[in-house]
Amino acid sequence: MGLGFLNSDQEEENENIVEDDFVELDAKMTEKTEKVVVRAETLKEFEDIEEVQEHLRNDHIVWLNIKPLKNRDMTDLKRAVKRLKKTIKAVDGDMAGVDEDWIVATPGYAEIARSSDQVESE
Predict the structure, then answer these.
(1) Per-residue pLDDT tens digits of the chain, which is 122 residues long
(2) Is the dihedral of CA 101, 39, 61, 113 positive or negative?
(3) What pTM does this model have?
(4) How far is CA 46 from CA 21, 52, 53, in A?
(5) Would you say 79 and 46 are in contact if contact means Cβ atoms under 8 Å apart?
(6) Which of 13, 24, 46, 76 gives the lowest tally of CB atoms within 10 Å of its CB?
(7) CA 24 remoteness from chain centre
(8) What CATH class has 38-109?
């Protein structure tokens, strides 16, 4: 007959094959309860960059308001950004200007998706 595969003897053979091919993995599930810290900081003085650097070293994402320092002393702002770039490089992070007054800086585990990257990938 054409429906010979419905025999109970063949069914038992197929079950044995499936059981023989079964491999048990000893995988342990872990729950990650650690949260990402996002800080908002303001650069009022050049020295404020030290606190921002410390947050990046501690794996925090930092939104940095640069407007007060930009309005006060453009030279100090440039020095602060240069120093911030060195820290970003050291922690293998990323940094981008959001607008004229804000910078976002991330440690190595995060990457900033820029609008030009999205256009290229589409």
Answers:
(1) 455 555 555 555 555 555 556 666 666 766 667 788 999 999 999 999 999 999 999 999 999 999 999 999 999 999 999 999 999 999 999 999 988 999 999 999 988 888 765 545 54
(2) negative
(3) 0.65
(4) 65, 11, 12
(5) yes
(6) 24
(7) 32
(8) alpha beta
